[in-house]
UniProtKB/TrEMBL annotation:
Pfam families: RimK, Rimk_N. SUPFAM superfamilies: Glutathione synthetase ATP-binding domain-like. Its cofactor is Mg(2+); Mn(2+). Signal peptide: none annotated. GO terms for biological process: SOS response; translation. One of its GO terms (molecular function) is ATP binding. This is ATP-grasp domain-containing protein. Transmembrane segments: none annotated. Keywords: ATP-binding, Ligase, Magnesium, Manganese, Metal-binding, Nucleotide-binding, Protein biosynthesis. The keyword Repeat does not apply. Residues 66-143 form the ATP-grasp domain. GO terms for cellular component: cytoplasm.
Amino acid sequence: MNITSKKPTVIYRGEKLENYDAVISRIGASYTFYGAAVVRQFEMAGLYTINRSKAITRSRDKLRSLQILAREGIGLPVTGFANHTADIEGMIDTVEGIPLVIKLLEGTQGKGVVLAETKKAASSVLSAFRQLKANILVQEFIKEAGGKDIRALVIGNKVVGAMERTAPDGDFRANLHLGGNGREVSLNDEEKQIAVDSAHTLGLSIAGVDLIKSKR
């Protein structure tokens, strides 16, 4: 990239990328920082980007995206966050006790996600993660979901497709990368609206929105 106030450009394999009207980005989780910088460079050059760089970085930050969604009244699992092992008891109490789900903020595809079914197990996992200087959050465990969640694909103001994912036997994580199974499902109007509202709240025009059913 050539970062200048005169004519910002993007160079790919020695060639300037010119004469383009729009950018549809697909950025792997491990390339978020660099990918968002490239999208931002295209924005500086005046190109239309389907998802703005600010929306991409906002949605990839688990804690920040949860805070934004909560502020706008989107239903979420009760979540706790702390930056020191001394706050472990408080984190557990924040989500109203055991069992609870512990997540690495930087984890993707179900990696770095642990279900703690006892207070001792939760304290042990939280302490271990904190010793590694890892940023973690805890969430209430939605038992009634039965190891299932829904991935809804939002484009603009519509849900154009949805897939129910089911965790493999002995696991609670429904990620396909971990052996989960997927099948096409239809959403009701309320579920569709939640998915669209969530995407718009984060500023995304195209998004995969994860939904989990609860008694609330």
